[in-house]
Amino acid sequence: GDRMWHFAVSVFLVELYGNSLLLTAVYGLVVAGSVLLLGALIGDWVDKNSRLKVAQTSLVVQNSSVILCGVILMIIFLFKTQLLTLYHGWLLTLCYILVITIANIANLASTATAITIQRDWIVVVAGEDRSKLADMNATIRRIDQLTNILAPMAVGQIMTFGSPMIGCGFISGWNLMSMCVEYLLLWKVYQKTPTLARKSAKVEASELKQLNVKKESDTKPPEGVQLIIEKDVTGFEPQQGGRKEKEVGCTARIAEPFITFRDGWVAYYNQPVFLAGMGLAFLYMTVLGFDCITTGYAYTQGLSGSVLSLLMGASAVTGIMGTVAFTWLRRKCGLIRTGLISGVAQFACLILCAISVFMPGSPMDLTVSPFADISARLFENEPLPTIASPEPEMIFATGMPNLLNGSIASANGDPEMSPEPVPLISVSLLFAGVIAARVGLWSFDLTVTQLLQENVIESERGIINGVQNSMNYLLDLLHFIMVILAPNPEAFGLLVLISVSFVAMGHIMYFRFAQKSLGKQLFVCHTPDPKAAPDSSPPGNTSTV
């Protein structure tokens, strides 16, 4: 249901606003800004409350918000003409604002669900077995990749053969049903795993700071098969109404979210896996993914929707291959080296993307200013382009009949006016690199995920992962800003080179983390990894893989 909604909401917003991307852009900006600002607060809320309460609350809020959004969208699709005439269209604008606001709440609740289930529950369920944790992480990612394929296909077919309104109704009904099933499954898992009822007590900020400081002089024991056992005192999770809260003043209550925000980012910086987390975040500063930006560029190069759907399917397959590679590499070389190998594999594949910029068919033109389109719109008062019903011969000007809907004909039927076919070498290399790089990307992502699971103390697991999500969204937001500043196809080659540079910087950060953690044993593949946070590991936990 969550994947269906993420795919469909952008399509619905485009349909509502007359085939314009304005509402979609506003929604993306609101979502990224909200997680950036509230990620630490969401994580802190996860840490301070019982696991079952957090999971159930976030699940209900997320699905209820999606259902409500679906109902509102159905009303808008049904009565859009009438809403346009009421209060000079302000009522319709209010509906747009309401939809974006509720959809943003659903995304924040989804973030809380991901933190508590994928970063906390899974660690407790895995117990002290690192291999089991790695297998569970990989399985969850495979399921995620499969739903990324199946959910858009299902919604797309319903909207194609039905209507957007029917699509809204289907998603609302599906989320209502799935909410009940997921709620029951969470309760079953909670009942069958008694350790989920125990949670580490929240320690004071001063104690956290001391715990997060890395002791360079400590001897690092080898990587074992057990997870880090928390040293802090644990107890049963607080029940509702079980303890009295201290009376605090109004000023302290207002300042509390800002203090939590600051403490969360400080704690994240002090983590021993800080460089690994930053390396992962830097991978979000890229146009080399199957998002709307890369898809739009592919359309300008003449690729049809059917070809793009095949490429997206191939990308999902290589992503699943990455999860298999992660589990195999971790068993052979250890967790930290798996991230290093995955990073090298991803960067090597992205070299193809950098080469594609200079190959025949690339629209890159350094004589065209990347800001030419922006300046024309803002300072020369040129009208914005409108999307009209295109004639068949004007759909694409690339002359590639095998990849488009039918054959290319010239204007007025004159063959001499036909555009020259665009060579496929550049775009083929670009997508070959993007698809192949998914193997290393998802293996690296799973590596950093497990490093965070193993090396962040339980009492601040939520807030650290909340800040990690904020960092991811920050770099993702920067990549959208980069595209807004240079939107023309002639500048896409520069965006590709910048993206490859940021990926390289991210993996350099991870290499520095691996070097500090393993030292001279970094390139000895069959030697187990030492702990990234040795001070959190008990002295007796030194068994080898």
TrEMBL record:
The keyword Methyltransferase does not apply. It is found in: Basolateral cell membrane; Membrane. This is Solute carrier family 40 member. The chain crosses the membrane at residues 20-46, 58-79, 85-109, 273-299, 305-328, 340-359, 422-441, 462-485, 491-511. Its main location: membrane. It comes from the Eukaryota. It holds the Pfam family FPN1. CDD domains: MFS_SLC40A1_like. Belongs to the ferroportin (FP) (TC 2.A.100) family. SLC40A subfamily. The gene is Slc40a1. May be involved in iron transport and iron homeostasis. It comes from Certhia familiaris (Eurasian treecreeper). The keyword Heme does not apply. GO terms for cellular component: basolateral plasma membrane. One of its GO terms (molecular function) is iron ion transmembrane transporter activity. It is a multi-pass membrane protein. Keywords: Cell membrane, Ion transport, Iron, Membrane, Metal-binding, Transmembrane, Transmembrane helix, Transport.
